[in-house]
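User: Hello! I'm new to structural biology and keep hearing that structure can be predicted from sequence alone. Could you demonstrate with Hexose kinase? Please show me the input and the output so I can see what each looks like.

Assistant: Of course. The first part below is the input, the amino acid sequence of Hexose kinase. The second part is the output, the predicted structure written as tokens.
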Amino acid sequence: MTTYDIVTLTANPSLDRTLELSGVLRRGEVQRAAASRAEPGGKGVNVSRVAAEAGVPTLAVLPGRAGDPLLSALDTVGLPYRTTAVDGEIRSNLTIAEPDGTTTKINAPGVPLDADQARGLADLLIDHAAAASWVALCGSLPPGLPDDWYRTLLDRLADLPCRVAVDTSGAPLVAAAAGRSDLVKPNDEELAEVTGADPAALKAAAAAGDLAPIVAAASELSARTGGAVLATLGAAGAVLTTGSGSWAATPPPTVTRSTVGAGDSSLAGYVLAALRGESEPDRLRSAVAYGAAAAGLAGTQPPAPDLLDLDHVVLTELATTR
């Protein structure tokens, strides 16, 4: 069996369609798009595409039947993948991008998975995770899967030597936070929902430059999972909290074209730096540089390493309380 440094799981993948407008979105009116794109997507697929651009062996595990447009799109970009068959066509999601970087995303429902399909997808992941360095469990769960599905996968992965990253939201994130993982990547709203913090207060504090509430919530989550927490804060950058400290990073100057997939690129940037054996602050630097580079691209294009502006990512060590 071929081995991969990064194996990603996308339980609810999508074909991502992006429309770029030349002006602001006007509800209820007819507008023409200045450009359009269609790309294979879903959070884990996005992570694997960034890894592939960096020349790192990666495999995307996802549901999908032969001939599905999403799988055809994966073939077009040359991304290695393995699938379990499902009964319907993988969903298409729509992104509307305005010139100032405002992004509106409309996600369609996913293809339901029955018990046998879910078991097959989980077994497929475990088979390939056995020889992987990192496994990333990414995105929402499709209809048919219980909220604790990622949590049960964490238990099965615990017996393998790979490190595990989790990037999800809502009830699946809350359930996964009860398990052990090496990295959790929430945004500020997800960090609030999993720790019980006030989301408005976290967002307001981060906007004002007060990162202490972010660090406190991330420290709580890190203590639960036993691993690092990479809290992405959009244009404000990100905060990394581990058992040994906390750091903040602000991104380089970026003209934003689409924020869709930027968080996925941040996750990939962290893991790529970890594979290189870099320090925790430098993993954060890589994560923020990748996220900024992704935001500067149209659609959900994966940024290549030559687009990174690592020199203008500003790192600051923060006080951590347990």
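User: So the tokens describe the shape?

Assistant: Right, they're a compact way of writing down the 3D structure. Reading them back into a model, for example: The chain has one domain: 6-318.
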